[in-house]
Write a structure and sequence with these properties.
With 188 residues, the protein is of the alpha+beta class. Helices cover 31% and strands 34% of the residues. α3 packs antiparallel against α4 (169-187). The termini are far apart.
Length: 188
Amino acid sequence: MPELHLGGVTYYGGFTHVPESKWTRIGRLVLGDDAVTMDRVQDKQMRNLPAVELCRSRAISTIEVTSEQVAKSKLGAALVFGVLGGVTAKGSMDRATIIIHLKSGAAGYLAVDKKSSASVLGLITPWAREKEIGLGAPQAQPIQSAGPKLIADELAKLAELRESGVLTEQEFLSLKRTLIEDHMGSTN
């Protein structure tokens, strides 16, 4: 599948490796084979900025797309049209919000004005399916209790490491003691 381009996207942040800017970045979102990038980027002062890689495609776990209605500013239209006949601007517009969830737990936040979530989702779904990326909010992972089964599993792993020669008998006994002490301390 060729690259997917989505114009008029605002990047609000979230990815720690993307250089911070005091201005919001607006540009074209490019969903490519290897990476998700923003190019043709400008800030609110209309300065051209270099393209930036948001994340690697294979690092994405899910992409969530939501929609909202946002108020548009009526001041400019009311000033221009109010004098000429009382016509005012439409009061709201669609905005699709895109949240890219990475397998590492990080997330990046983007928005596309004048597009509904359905239209954005329709555009990115074929790309996401080809890359085997889930759509929607990430599923919560069940919390494992630190019960006897977990401790038994950890002790079995330590025993395997000792038997394979990775751990000496002394290291095994020390780690075993620490594991049991930590478990006993957490249950008291």
